[in-house]
Amino acid sequence: xxxxxxxxxxxxxxxxxxxxxxxxxxxxxxxxxxxxxxxxxxxxxxxxxxxxxxxxxxxxxxxxxxxxxxxxxxxxxxxxxxxxxxxxxxxxxxxxxxxxxxxxxxxxxxxxxxxxxxxxxxxxxxxxxxxxxxxxxxxxxxxxxxxxxxxxxxxxxxxxxxxxxxxxxxxxxxxxxxxxxxxxxxxxxxxxxxxxxxxxxxxxxxxxxxxxxxxxxxxxxxxxxxxxxxxxxxxxxxxxxxxxxxxxxxxxxxxxxxxxxxxxxxxxxxxxxxxxxxxxxxxxxxxxxxxxxxxxxxxxxxxxxxxxxxxxxxxxxxxxxxxxxxxxxxxxxxxxxxxxxxxxxxxxxxxxxxxxxxxxxxxxxxxxxxxxxxxxxxxxxxxxxxxxxxxxxxxxxxxxxxxxxxxxxxxxxxxxxxxxxxxxxxxxxxxxxxxxxxxxxxxxxxxxxxxxxxxxxxxxxxxxxxxx
Length: 468
Ligand SMILES: Cc1cc2nc3c(=O)[nH]c(=O)nc-3n(C[C@H](O)[C@H](O)[C@H](O)COP(=O)(O)OP(=O)(O)OC[C@H]3O[C@@H](n4cnc5c(N)ncnc54)[C@H](O)[C@@H]3O)c2cc1C
What we know:
mainly alpha; binds flavin-adenine dinucleotide; 468 residues; 18 helices; DNA Cyclobutane Dipyrimidine Photolyase, subunit A, domain 3; globular; five-stranded parallel β-sheet; Rossmann fold; Serine Threonine Protein Phosphatase 5, Tetratricopeptide repeat; 3 domains
């Protein structure tokens, strides 16, 4: 084939990129294109941290492609329409891309396939976002898994696709028109120094650093929200700056060098990467989870919380220091530690009785790693409505969670400097009535025990309604 298009999506790297490697092996020349969709239309799902990170990743990708002798073409608008025009302009014989597991990406791929059939160009989608996807991991009866542990066991039995390495060179035809790279200023955004450095090189640096040291203590440390106890690779996997196959391979190679005890700690990390694939698998097989509860017993449930309470949660002004610290971390940096995500999500749903979908959307707008499948899975898990979710009656108590995971208040004090001088033991127990931690800090907005009782009633009532 003389010319093929590689359509970049959530695979913004040149190393071990399945579809990019396939395009360059199949054609003399490759047109690498990124198509920016209208951000205003996707308001439900995006926000400034992720937009800033994306812009940086595209700059870095363009730089890397130039180093290979190529260049990155930018277009903007409807992906199928832009690809149609690009095929006409370049006379490309095929469009290659890595498959996107979410329902929006899937719909676009189906439209593109139809167009390819009608117009006579090949449309080639590759597996890349996951190690195992779609129908790869099914039960003995051919059904999708709904529970994590048997899924993870079946997942581990499958042969893993190999790692392909980095592209050496890329020939891009001259004369292909490109828009300028997207700039933040266009969307009225300003650069914040809080998000991780974007781009493949920075992501590879983070991967190396994590594998060298924190991996060996991961199991024991991962629930501690203060400091860096986890990999912080989520945005890199979200944007495909790292190949998931390479991360597994490098992780395993590193594990072989560790002691048996350390290996046990490190294997927990593998388990988390499989959670990511589990939620992608759930979204693929049950796309309705984006609109409704996975567990049919809890569909249509009433959430009586108020808009005012939602604002206080979002601002980090609930009077529960662990919740407020986590929300401030999210608002400022676009990241929140996993334990803190669970605590804040349970607080919104089980203490404030607000619909999990409100929190899901808020997180998607703030998180740099915002990813539809994991975010929906995490929210439904916390609300007690999801696949293999925390049972609704197991309600985390923010005070005891603090005692367990932040006993010295290191996380709380890092994000709530106004509480820096408050003794740690006062951060993990409800204050006596009227006893403020500091003059400006709010009193707890609810009594956790009362809120818990109300939650149990709400869920019990809903179960009765659906059983009728
Ligand atoms: C309410 C809620 C919302 C969440 N939203 C997102 C989201 O939008 N995007 C996202 O990537 N993760 C999400 N998670 C999962 C998890 O919190 C983050 O992946 C993790 O905190 C990222 O930090 P890390 O890279 O240091 O994780 P590590 O602990 O180092 O884990 C390594 C990788 O495994 C994956 N992973 C870890 N935990 C989970 C999990 N519980 N579910 C799925 N994948 C996991 C991530 O890709 C992560 O980068 C959410 C969890 C909850 C409870």
